[in-house]
């Protein structure tokens, strides 16, 4: 989607994103309190990403929950494009996917699009994407997915089933639709043009492998939604249910404006950052503070535009009372930016340390998770 101030595509997110406008442009539905309540009922609690509105929109999530309640088999599908190290933004949909897997006790198909990153990035070789895929997979396992129910695969190493499904999808998608949906041009290589069929394929891979009737739900950030439009159009033509989706906002970069992105490494917190690196990035973050401490005390800060506050709010401070106090105290001038940054840096350091320990343990269980031909 493109308007004068922002761009949201699977490959680029730029400017101030207006999520209300995006709901209309993409034709998705807002996540209402009623659906959130249905999730709470099944999960026995609300994930912080739901409570704080990071997950904000969906497609047919009600129908997916209906299927579960009626005893239709449900599965989850999400993914990662291995173009570099994992950052905090990538974790947002994965943490939520784990919450859903725990709640609905269902299988998860996790696609690694090594082909995508090779085809779309002139700088990357197949060897480099394979190396990133290996590293990313450890981060994915470290999230804590159920090893009995989680199937991770890369497009280049699990090609046969995926290609078989992708050709069936591709037959129903014209170049003109792909061009309009993804912005391809005459100079796009032909691999790029076929690729959307590879990302659509796992929507139907469970049916392909088992012939079972199944309802798929895709948790991801809203940038991936164009793929599901195509998948949903094709599904009935192949005799399958349309995949449902639940979509998150973007965690912003630490600078002013734009999503956290690996292409801006100083404003992204990578899971491989040391706590000193992470603390340095947080220290330089954009805040809603006044230019001087005196002015901050007199006029108060603006948490509504502050990236540091938004990290505490969206992910790092699960205590509703504490986060409300931070907001009020910042506005009233009782809190200076340095204190808030220190608090966030501490929470990030703790998180990274725990993640690293889980990642080390993950090294012993990769084979359990991988789907191979
Ligand atoms: P990738 O690797 O760019 O991103 C992985 C997941 O992270 C989400 N994401 C973010 N979420 C919140 N804040 C951010 N700043 C942020 N940046 C990225 C993405 O939406 C994505 O869910 N082509 C895909 C890989 C893929 C996939 C899928 C993703 C294949 N099949 C199914 C989701 C669902 C990609 O390159 O994602």
Query: Approximately how much beta-strand content do the residues carry?
Result: 5-15%
Q: For this structure, what is the CATH homologous superfamily of the largest domain? A: HUPs
Q: For the largest beta sheet, what order do the strands appear in spatially?
A: 3-4-9-8-5-6-7
Low-confidence stretches: none
How far apart lie the N and C ends? 37 Å
When the domains are counted, the total is: 2
Radius of gyration: 21 Å
Number of helices: 18
Estimate the global geometry from the Cα principal axes. globular
Q: What is the CATH C-level name of the largest domain? A: Alpha Beta
In short:
Helices cover 52% and strands 12% of the residues. With 373 residues, the chain is α/β, with parallel strands linked by helices. It has a seven-stranded mixed sheet, sandwiched between helices.
């Amino acid at each position: 989607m493109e308007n004068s101030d922002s761009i949201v595509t699977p490959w680029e997110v730029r400017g101030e994103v207006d999520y209300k406008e995006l709901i209309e442009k993409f034709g998705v539905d807002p996540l209402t309190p009623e659906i959130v309540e249905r999730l709470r009922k099944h999960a026995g609690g609300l994930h912080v990403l739901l409570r704080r509105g990071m997950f904000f929109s969906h497609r047919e999530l009600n129908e997916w929950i209906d299927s579960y309640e009626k005893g239709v088999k449900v599965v989850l599908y999400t993914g990662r494009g291995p173009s570099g190290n994992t950052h905090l933004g990538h974790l947002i949909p994965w943490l939520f996917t784990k919450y859903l897997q725990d709640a609905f006790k269902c299988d998860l198909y996790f696609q690694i699009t090594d082909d995508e990153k090779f085809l779309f990035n002139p700088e990357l070789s197949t060897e480099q994407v394979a190396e990133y895929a290996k590293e990313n997979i450890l981060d994915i396992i470290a999230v804590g997915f159920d090893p009995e129910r989680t199937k991770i695969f890369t497009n280049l190493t699990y090609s046969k089933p995926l290609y078989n499904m992708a050709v069936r999808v591709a037959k129903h998608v014209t170049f003109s639709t792909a061009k309009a949906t993804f912005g391809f041009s005459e100079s796009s290589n032909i691999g790029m043009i076929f690729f959307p069929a590879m990302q659509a394929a796992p929507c139907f891979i469970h049916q392909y492998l088992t012939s079972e009737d199944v309802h798929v739900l895709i948790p991801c950030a809203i940038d991936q939604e164009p793929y599901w439009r195509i998948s949903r159009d094709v599904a009935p033509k192949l005799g399958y249910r349309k995949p449902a989706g639940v979509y998150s906002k973007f965690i912003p970069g630490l600078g002013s404006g734009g999503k956290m992105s690996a292409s801006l490494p100083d404003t992204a917190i990578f899971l491989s950052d040391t706590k000193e690196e992470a603390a340095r990035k947080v220290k330089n973050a954009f805040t809603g503070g006044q230019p001087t401490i005196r002015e901050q005390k007199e006029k108060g800060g603006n948490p509504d535009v502050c990236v540091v506050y938004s990290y505490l709010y969206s992910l790092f401070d699960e205590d509703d009372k504490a986060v409300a106090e931070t907001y009020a105290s910042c506005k009233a001038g009782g809190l200076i930016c340095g204190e808030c940054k220190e608090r966030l840096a501490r929470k990030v350091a703790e998180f990274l340390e725990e993640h690293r320990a889980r990642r080390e343990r993950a090294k012993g269980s990769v084979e359990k998770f991988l789907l191979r031909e």
